[in-house]
Amino acid sequence: MSPGNWKMIAIAVGFNVLISLVLLYSAWVIIKLRSRLAKIADKIIAAERSTYKVLHNAPNAISKGQKGALRLGQQYQQLDPQLQRVQQVLGLFSLGRKFWLRGKPKSVATGLRFWRRS
């Protein structure tokens, strides 16, 4: 073989080694990226499971809360007329007290005693 052929062979082997090293580095980067993506996927799955555990009963709880609020509103509507009646009765008592105390001396009207204990 001539010296020119050896140079061609050495250049071809050098290029092949260089290409192999680039491909080996690329494979290492891809494996590293795959590992990182697997860890990220595991974390996303764990977060999804945690979220599911917390929120899977949310529709039932919301529905229960809405029903409770509806019942409370109905109870309030039932109690509102009773409250108005009680307020009217208390207003009548207050008015009656004013008329009853109208002609009384101030000490009787305010509840002061005429005498004090020593």
**Radius of gyration, CA atoms, in whole angstroms:** 46 Å
**Biggest sheet descriptor:** none
Helical fraction: over 70%
The low-confidence runs, each spanning 5 or more residues with pLDDT under 50, are none
Sheet-strand content, in percent, reads: under 5%
| Overall number of strands | 0
Q: Tell the overall outline.
A: rod-shaped
End-to-end Cα distance: 140 Å
How would you spell out the order of helices and strands?
A: HHH
Average pLDDT, rounded to a whole number, is 87
* Class inferred from helices and paired strands: mainly alpha
| Number of helical segments with 4 or more residues | 3
Compact overview of the structure:
The protein has helices spanning 3-55, 58-101, 106-110. It is mainly alpha-helical. The protein is rod-shaped and about 140 Å long.
Compile the SSE list and pairings.
Blueprint: H1 3-55, H2 58-101, H3 106-110
Care to describe what's here?
The chain is an all-alpha fold. It is built from three helices and no strands. It starts with a helix and ends in an 8-residue tail after the last helix. The mean pLDDT is 87.
Keywords:
3 helices; 0% strand; 118 residues; single chain
